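User: Fold this; tokens only.

Assistant: Input:
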Amino acid sequence: MNCQFRTFRRASGVWYIENTATRQQESLRTRDTDEAERLLMARNEAHRQPAINMQIARAYLSAADPSSVSRTWQFVMDEMAKGKKGPTKDRWVRGVAQKPFDHIRNLKLVETRAEHFWHVLTTGTVSTNVTLRRLHNFAIDLNWLLAGLIPRRQWPKVKFRAKRAITLEEHEKILAGERNPQWLTYYRMLWHVGGSQTDVARLCAEDIDWANRTISFSRGKNRSPVLITFGRAMANLFKICPAKGYLMPKISRMTESDRGSLFSRRCRLVGVKGVTLHSYRYAWAERAKTAGFPERYAQEALGHKSQAVHAAYAKKAMVKVPCLEDWEQQMKDKIVRLAFQNNDENSGPMELDSSPSICDSTI
């Protein structure tokens, strides 16, 4: 029987292998003759007996890792869930419970091919794409997969649904259509605090410091502390809430999905479309940027440390740039007022510096 592959050595001393049918050549990356012969025999043997290749591979894998031949994707899903806690774990469990994953749930890793993953991707959603990527990378990182099933550049691009902030008009329409006092308080607090729906729902009376007019809480996502000064509107809301325990007891006991469903129902009834409870965070960030609120304070309020994340929240905010000429005149007037104030406070007369400054420059 003619051999499918043959070897040859180039002038550099490196051995190469050539497919006699396609004439395709590739380097064996070795100068050792014995090693080149073994690689050639393995290639020809694999070509002659494709039916037993999988069994041979299983035998080798079983010797190195006894569980490798029986490990399924459900096992990988369960192992990955062990490293998550709280709401993150709940989201992961819901993610892998999606119907498209039933196609690979009980499939062994050593028997998985690219078309299996492709079937999951084509029948799933954006969430399926993100979850499958994490599952795939987790298996590779732990060496449960010898190689990636789908090259990184071939994964379908993740395209999230467009998100936007809730407008003041929409917020007022929701308030006008709501009759439950707790929900009215909840929506108003979301508007003023900018926290996540769960963080705001679980605010307690003990979190309020009336002496310093601040409210403090820990973000449920990463447990980072948040300390926010509140104004008159928030103070009025706190006064109508219970003096002990949760400020909104009924809403605090609900799950995220229940609160989201009730909010969606309210939006449908009042004719508001394209927003969720998370849209209140976008609204807070955009209002902060439009008002010139320092970005470091906005990051602390939103719980984000990355400027890129905050920029994504406020990317649609429109900032009206003031006239530079008027701005310079305002700064000049401010300097003059401060000078006269200091002159009145001091016992002796104070002369103003007549030397030219930046504010005196002509544009």
